[in-house]
Amino acid sequence: xxxxxxxxxxxxxxxxxxxxxxxxxxxxxxxxxxxxxxxxxxxxxxxxxxxxxxxxxxxxxxxxxxxxxxxxxxxxxxxxxxxxxxxxxxxxxxxxxxxxxxxxxxxxxxxxxxxxxxxxxxxxxxxxxxxxxxxxxxxxxxxxxxxxxxxxxxxxxxxxxxxxxxxxxxxxxxxxxxxxxxxxxxxxxxxxxxxxxxxxxxxxxxxxxxxxxxxxxxxxxxxxxxxxxxxxxxxxxxxxxxxxxxxxxxxxxxxxxxxxxxxxxxxxxxxxxxxxxxxxxxxxxxxxxxxxxxxxxxxxxxx
Length: 303
Fold this sequence. Notes:
Number of helices: 13
Number of domains: 1
Largest sheet: 2 strands, antiparallel
Strand content: under 5%
Shape: globular
Radius of gyration: 19 Å
Oligomer: single chain
Low-confidence stretches: 141-149
């Protein structure tokens, strides 16, 4: 029953977190600067972090070591999210998020290098499948020369995936000493501070003020997405990590790529031009095939 619990919670977290990314892309359509949404997220998550941390302040089982790991985890998560949102502003969500879901590969490598774990040949094959799927999603063509190339964003996203892997590992370490809710509060506080440090600039601040003055629908979307959906998804993720092994939980969280492609493609088919998604037989085949490789890879890692 316990095994089924963390598997179900992991998949539920993946499905919820996929909707966060799709809504983030919609909100970006209202912004004039790529820093506007991250700035709003910084305000929202810092507020949530302060509130939750105060309410749950220093539970009996808390340790300063666990508190430090939790704060570090949030900072790393914020840095990773900052990188992927930089790419998401100009790239399709169904091509961006699946690449970031290569993080289970790095979790496995970290486990081998530092935790003394070993991987079977089939699991190394899964790593190859996952990276291949991520690379395929980032492929494009040079219109003039019909030359296939790897988009520069691929390298940024892979760096973000590595940082995300370390954030997940440090979250697991923190959860060994801290309850889920207190850990979540510390992580959101740290994440919010990172976002504010990177994005509290004159241009996005003016854009935020303009959104408020115009009573833009983006503000409602941000409120729902960042205060409710994002916190629900991240809490589910921590809950799953508290119950199951980090490598397997993170592998199942990688199925977020599948949910992103399903959500974004369905929305683009119903609402033409939504999210800037290109829906043709060729692009759809690449997205589905690439995402399938990633899902297969992370699933084998979880076996």
